[in-house]
Amino acid sequence: MKYKLPIIIINFKTYKEIYGNNGLKIAKAAEQVSKEEGLTIMIAPPIAEVMLYTTQINIPVISQHVDAHEPDRGTGMIPVELIKSTGAVGSIVNHSEHPVNLNSISFVVDKLKKYDMISCVCVQRSSEAGSIAILNPDMVAIEPPELIGGNISVSTAKPEIVAYSVENVREQSNEVAVLCGAGIKSDEDVKKAVDLDVDGILISSGVVLSKNPKEIIENLASGF
Ligand code: G3P
Asked: Where in the sequence numbering do the catalytic residues fall?
């Protein structure tokens, strides 16, 4: 699937703040900002609700996870083909809150590619970024787990990790986009990330737990 960089991906995780209609309100806000600013914004709602979003929201929806599993018997498994059938256009892969092994990453990246779907593979360390880039996903996202959900962004606390990740990915490919995430809350965090040459950000709590998600998304967008 074609999309324009830079990009913001909003991962809803499974925060109770998005249950009921609340998540849809955030998604609508993201849709509005995306249109107003001409900026690519994707959302990653809980897997059980993906179809709700793909049918009601007009920006790309991706899954938070997919399994390295063929569509056959496999209770509770989430094959790529299943999320494709819901209208999702891709998936986060290997988030530190749902890590998978290298074989699984490779399997789902290939499978997503086969269906022209987007893969955003998360890594916890910059040294992993290069080896994941070899698999040729659409995006590699560096997210140090200790900063996730906190108030200090990765671009402020550990700029060198972001810079090394960009360098490691670029050594392998110019086609793979590099994102960073963890603790991002404001346009300043985004600007610092952009100065480190990233192509986008992955964010959760800064938007999902905010009292005014639209204002936050607008503020983040202004950082690019
Ligand atoms: O996938 C996004 C993520 O892990 C970052 O979370 O809450 O630090 O923005 P957060």
From this structure: 95, 143
